[in-house]
Amino acid sequence: MSGTGTGGAANAAVRRKIMGFIVSQAIHAVCELGVPDRLADGPAAVPELAAGTGADAGALHRFLRVLAAEGLFTEDPAGTFALTAEGRLLCAAEPGSLRHFAELMSGEAYVAWSRAAHSLRTGEAAFAAVYGSPFFDWLAEHPEEAARFDRAQAGLVEMRLLPLLERDWDGAGTVVDVGGGNGVLMSALLAARPDLKGIVFDLPHVVDGARRTLAEAGLAGRTRCAGGDFFAGVPAGGRVYVLAQILHDWADGEAVAILRRCHEAMPPDGALLLLEQVVPEDGEPHPAKLLDLHMLVLLGGRERTAAQWRDLLARGGFEQVSATEGPRSTLIEARPLPGVTPAS
Question: Among this protein's residues, is 248 annotated catalytic?
């Protein structure tokens, strides 16, 4: 059996792809023990790192050896490790940190992927097949995991928010964050724009966290939090409605229903803002294509191409006005079309 030449190279390349989960889980493991944070101030030898993080020194070296080959760390001949520019994104305090994203892709989400073939066969979420209930229903019954999910989402807001903050908000008045979670997005927006007021809308057990976030930021006087189900209705009273990575959680039928509920609540001159991924229509690798599969396996949702977003908006009663690409999400702005029949 040859290990060289074209056949050997192809074999090694495919084996590496098959074992890619080892890299993602190794990243999560070193983040869980705080290894990148320990290296944030400078290089350290393995024994020092192990003592400071509670790791086994031999195992730690083996983990870091793999991740150094992935470009996240460097190792000198003496066995001292340091962070690369990419590795710094695993530090909790780094702007644009991906540490919470590593946490989000572990645990129950990772286990759900063990049944990915269920999604392939049925087009439905594998999560419910593994855990017995849909993902968000399951979170409602597991507060510790729900808190971890909220932390991870909050950690991803910083980069996602940039195109939203750079938008012209003059005359916007009141902004409604539909599916606003624990209020981190609204908090950042109102802090940047003192002229705005806000409404955070999410499930009743979720918006309790938003009230705390906004109160701690000194923004309680400019906001209110409303609990409910966005399939049943969305609060009126806003001029701008935001859906920040909400619609990708859902298949087209449910996503259209959410859009219709927003349409019903909005004034005719209102604006709808989506912060979402846009899947390129080419054959090149792209994070949105991976996230698309993750949404299918976890939730039965999907990422969409630019054409699919325009079509979805039209079915929901909106016309797309613009799309502004940011470093992590695209800001899609739409306006309500008149004469839309309410969704059933």
Answer: yes
The class (CATH top level) of 5-94 is: mainly alpha
Amino acid at 130: V
Question: Has domain 157-336 been given CATH number 3.40.50.150?
Answer: yes
Catalytic residue among 28, 61, 118, 248: 248
Q: Which residues contact 158 (CB under 8 A, 6 or more apart)?
A: 95, 96, 97, 188
Question: pLDDT of 197-234, one tens digit each?
Answer: 999 999 998 888 899 999 999 999 999 999 999 999 99
Taking the mean position of all CA atoms in its chain, how far away is CA 144?
A: 18
Name the residue ranges covered by the structural domains of the chain.
5-94, 157-336
CB atoms within 10 A of CB 39: 22
Give CA–CA dist 145/107, Å, rounded.
9
Tens of pLDDT, residues 29-62: 999 999 999 999 999 999 999 999 999 999 999 9
Strand-pairing partners, residue 174, are 197
- Tell me if residue 225 falls in helix, strand or coil: strand
Share in percent of the chain as helix, strand, coil (round to 5): 50, 15, 35
Length of the chain: 344
The bridge status of strand 271-276 relative to strand 330-336 is: antiparallel
